[in-house]
Amino acid sequence: MEIIKGIIFATILLKASVSDIRTREVDNYFSIMLAITALIGVNLNGFVPMILGALIVPLPLLITAIAKPGKMGGADIKIMSACAFLLGFTKGMAALIIGLFFAVICTLIIRKITKKNLHDSIPLVAYLGASSFLVYLI
What we know:
Layout: H1 2-23, H2 28-38, H3 47-56, H4 59-67, H5 74-87, H6 89-114, H7 124-137
């Protein structure tokens, strides 16, 4: 069951990442599909950490979006919330930290090489999705 869940998880994250990279927009149904995927094989004991993850892990992204309007899309917050629901609080927080770390490092390197403006938007869903799947595998 975990293998099937992982394949579905990876597929949804890949499609959402491609959408974010191409258009800087991610449809709401990706977050809904991730939340439904999280329910595959879940038992009642694991439900509380899932709820905590979904509510607490995306808070730094939400605070950033409120503090600096227009700098972060709602899809980033929704995708991370759905991933944290699937992963639980601890793994969700690890995925958020790893994803943001790689987003900063990779963006700095890419922008330095391509000589693009550091203030342009970045496809954060791709980094959060990759880190979420990496944490899922651990």
